[in-house]
Design brief:
Layout (H helix, E strand, L loop, with lengths): L4 H25 L13 H36 L1
Helix pairs in contact: 1-2
Length: about 80
């Protein structure tokens, strides 16, 4: 479990980005008088986009974790 913390953090960031994206899409088309909100026209597309963003975030998190481990391993071997 400890191994995938950065991947889970990346997935969470993907979820937040998906919600933020939906909010910005609503802000583009909303009347000026409306408050900040979220409007999801197609739940199927929103869920698919959210899953894609979460998978991308998870994979980027794993890549970052791999690179950090390599850098730390090389740094600790030089001492």
């Amino acid at each position: 479990m400890k191994r995938n913390i950065i991947g889970i953090l990346g997935s969470t960031m993907g979820l937040v980005f998906s919600i933020f994206d939906a909010m910005m899409s609503y802000a583009d088309t909303a009347p000026i008088e409306d408050n900040l909100g979220i409007e999801i026209i197609s739940w199927d597309k929103f869920i698919l986009k959210t899953l894609i963003y979460m998978i991308i975030g998870f994979l980027i998190g794993l890549i970052v974790q791999f690179v950090l481990k390599r850098v730390m391993f090389n740094y600790s071997n030089k001492k």
